[in-house]
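Why does residue order matter? Because the sequence determines the fold. Keep that principle in mind as you read this record.
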Amino acid sequence: IDNIPIKLNAAAILREGALYQRKMEQELKRIENLLQGAGDPSEFLEWQKQMRGKDMEEQLAEIECRRLQGKLSHEEAVLAHQNVIQENKKKADLMREEKAEMMHQYAEKRLQEQKEMRELVEQVVEGHKNAKQAKIKLQKYKQQIVQEVCEENRELLRQALEEEEEKLRKRYELIQQIRAIESLPNLRHKFVDLTETGGHGLICEMSIVELRERLALLREAQKAAEEEKRDQIIHEKQAKEQLLLDKLDQISLFRAELGRAAALKQEEKKRKSQSGERPMKDERILNLQKKIVEKTMERKKQAGLL
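Structure:
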């Protein structure tokens, strides 16, 4: 999978060609400096790379410590939450018992109140029997009024419908008259001479025939300009394609050389890693991992009790 073919567009080819061109110029400049007696900065760059590697290892150890500290804090928070749940459970049991006692007392009180209300309702029902007959008379009077209002509304609606039908009939007759007038044939004709001008008194005034001739000349000129532009675009495209082909050949050579250099560098790095010793873990990381294991076991034990 290291040699997957990638289809490059024109911009990518030019960009990569410019990159390799800069690298070649830098390499030529470095060789020229070496021929003039300048020192090779590769040793300094290697030392700088090693220092950066050590700094990176320290940063990674610090990041790992922070991650483990966050995990330890999470375990402690979960354990504290479980303790709070256990305390709340005890309080809830106590409140449930108190609530049951209060509900029992409330039920007894409600039974006594219902008994008193029942007696009061029986007294009120006897007074309502006399008011029922008056309510029936009032309802009959209201029904009579509603019937009279409905009859009056039906008469008004009938009159409104008759007026609206008369308006529609008059509008329909007017539309028929307008359509009859529009259907009459138009017999007016006018002869047009294409060689005459409009007679507006302008200096640039031309007839329709002259305008057609001028338009034909303009179209021929436009067509010639388009042909010339098309030939120019074709030449530029061919030149660009040739440039891209040259750039592709140059990119292939550079990639091959870079691949060989990368393979040699990877082999050298692998040899050094096999000969070197693996770095020991940081003491802080080991302590944090031990604490996390202890807190995890304590949390699982507390969860089992819950």
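Helices lie at 10-35, 42-182, 208-275, 283-305.
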